Amino acid sequence: xxxxxxxxxxxxxxxxxxxxxxxxxxxxxxxxxxxxxxxxxxxxxxxxxxxxxxxxxxxxxxxxxxxxxxxxxxxxxxxxxxxxxxxxxxxxxxxxxxxxxxxxxxxxxxxxxxxxxxxxxxxxxxxxxxxxxxxxxxxxxxxxxxxxxxxxxxxxxxxxxxxxxxxxxxxxxxxxxxxxxxxxxxxxxxxxxxxxxxxxxxxxxxxxxxxxxxxxxxxxxxxxxxxxxxxxxxxxxxxxx
Length: 241
Ligand code: SF4
Ligand code: SF4
Ligand code: SF4
Description:
The protein is an alpha+beta fold. The protein has helices at 3-27, 39-45, 51-55, 91-95, 132-136, 174-178, 194-220, 222-227, 233-237; strands at 62-63, 75-76, 114-117, 144-150, 158-164, 188-191. α1 (3-27) packs across α2 (39-45).
């Protein structure tokens, strides 16, 4: 091979690698079918044949829009529209000819992401009975359970709060598909990066604890409470007219 040809091949490889990297950056948070590993591994193996999409009996998979480079034409999910049903036999994985979707022993091993509940928006946290996400979960009482406690500052009413098990949630998104809250946004979402999701879940717990601490100041110093912009629990602890 001539020097000029070697240079051209090398330049082509660099450009190709850059395109894959750019694609990974833009599609990192996009949900992928069961069996997909990290975005780099998935993009390097998916040949966009669409066989997983054809194999899904629920129409949960579709081709991505708004992607660039090697991410164009790859399969994804819009779980609010149609979540993954966690089929026992995982036909999407069986149909994949390249190993972009890796075989799993059990549907419980699916890791598409991790559900994160926005406790400011979830009506169950505000002491209304809901549990819709809990009942929708195919791994009910494993991936999600209901935590019971008395409502803060209230000796009569209870809170039945859905709590995600960070080790068992598959990220199938059925909870998101069924959530009754969508304004200003859905009260639960799937975060693909599980470490990021765990950080967000921890922040949600702190946020509510802080709100409760703040609520305690309402009785002694309502002006300070107002100034600090208390939310949710404020209404629970505040005496009702
Ligand atoms: S597990 Fe079933 S519902 Fe989920 S993507 Fe695969 S084929 Fe579709
Ligand atoms: S994403 Fe939601 S429905 Fe699916 S396993 Fe996790 S908690 Fe259950
Ligand atoms: S369905 Fe939505 S609002 Fe209802 S408990 Fe679940 S996250 Fe909260």
